[in-house]
Sequence to fold (296 residues):
Amino acid sequence: MSGPAIVIDHLSVRFGKTVAVQDLALEVPRGRIFGFLGENGAGKTTTIRVLMGLLRPTSGGVRVLGEDPLGGNAELLQRIGYVSDDRAMYRWMRVSEILRFNRGLFRKWDSAYAERMREEFELDPRAKVRSLSRGQIAKLALLCALAPHPELLILDEASSGLDPIVRRMILEKLIDVASREGTTIFLSSHLLEEVDRVAEQIAILCRGRLIALGDKDTVRGSLKRVIVAARERPLALNGQPWVLASRQTDGEIQLIARDLDSSKLGLLREWFGAEPTVIEMPLDDVFAEYTAWGKK
Fold:
């Protein structure tokens, strides 16, 4: 099928006077791994609940695999794998019972694939869910989401709180599924390291607003750290929308500049009367600076 896997069209969600998501607009192409970044409380889970048809928007709308998810769209849910942030499942069931239960829910459930993943994840079929560790529950949740071979996999903080070995296993499985089956993966997280490793495109959310969107390398390169040997901050910097932050230390001024080009560098040389030093920033610093700017 053609068209984006996800279309979010000026989505806003309010709970009373609290704005959880504000005028969010983005598209997720099919077959890509999309990183949905933001601090806790940024609006990521609220957005995902709308995508899953669990929450009605205040305004705007979404399309998932070309369909409206609202109203209990059972046919659409057959095509989506979902791992929620709480990884909810019946704790009194055994692993084997969880697999049989999910097999009854999904027409395309692949029992052989599920068994291979169970062995790969070293999950004892006789173990009850309440006896499993956080990492084992995360593996079981991912298994249940992948066994029906979904067109779209939505993960809401799926590896949060897990040890590095389990996080690595989950990321490797996501890379394998995306490359082998062409599954679209919508990965919501505040863990920059994992998103940087697997995502091709990213969006950064802050207080419900979209503050950065694009290919991962483009977003990473959109901010530069600029250092100038100077003791005074030029007044001309005031009100420049491309200067997200400025910090003064003894003998130098540090700027965070957005979409820095030759003309903006020329202005900095003119204003400071000195040659700026431009430093590339890692994704975690880019995320931190965008988030700090978004809170102003």
Q: What stands out?
A: The chain has a mean pLDDT of 92. The radius of gyration is 22 Å. Residues 6-217 form a domain with the Rossmann fold fold (CATH 3.40.50.300).
